[in-house]
Amino acid sequence: MTKGKLLLAVVFVVQLVCSVFFVSEIVLTIFNVRARPISWQTRELMEIGATIGLIIGPIIGAIFLRNSMRRTAIVEQKLKAASGAFMDVMAERFDDWGLTPAERDVALFAIKGMSIQEIAALRQTSEGTVKAQTNAIYRKAGVSGRPQLLSLFIEDLLDVDDRVRIAAE
Questions:
Q1: Distance (Å, rounded) from C-alpha 120 to C-alpha 107?
Q2: Rounded to the nearest 5°, which phi and psi values hold at 104?
Q3: With 0-12 CB in 10 A as exposed, 13-18 as middle and 19+ as buried, what is 164?
Q4: What is residue 1's three-state secondary structure?
Q5: 3-class SS at 166?
Q6: Cβ atoms of residues 130 and 139 within 8 Å
Q7: 117 vs 151: CA distance, rounded Å
Q8: pTM
Q9: Is the predicted pLDDT of residue 134 greater than 80, yes or no?
Q10: What is the DSSP letter of 134?
């Protein structure tokens, strides 16, 4: 268990004990159960301790929330950079292969996982035209189908990510 998770678990247990302390007093009063009397000084110290325990929880929770939001923002930035890098890699490859604008559109839709029928409907063209364009794309890319086409971009993206990571180190 990491240090942060352990701290959260401890805070949770402390808050649970503090809550039980206050709720038990109310429940005992409702059922008219009297506990053995304790001095008012001890009682006050217990209430102060329980109150402090309940106050610490939201403070630590806010700290963890802030840290979590920071990590999420960093991950979103990295994802955005990766997405931009992926689009850059695709544009570069499309240029290298000499794809026409129509083939670029079809290739992009194919990489997104759309079917021939969906691509034809989006481009308002026949399925035969889309099939011919996909065959031209595969031939120019030197692959035999969509999975291989996609793997080319994944390999390129991983290479870009490795280069970025190595440059940052």
A1: 12
A2: -60, -45
A3: middle
A4: coil
A5: helix
A6: no
A7: 22
A8: 0.51
A9: yes
A10: H
**Most confident by average pLDDT, 44-48, 99-103, 145-149:** 99-103
Tokens of 148: 């291989």
Encode 32-86 in three state secondary structure.
CCCCCCCCHHHHHHHHHHHHHHHHHHHHHHHHHHHHHHHHHHHHHHHHHHHHHHH
- The amino acid sitting at 89 is V
Of the chain, the end-to-end C-alpha distance in Å amounts to 28
Angle in degrees, CA 110, 111, 116, rounded to 5 = 15
Residue 164's pLDDT band, with cuts at 50, 70 and 90, is very low
Predicted confidence (pLDDT) at residue 124 exceeds the cutoff of 90: yes
What single-letter amino acid sits at 39?
A: S
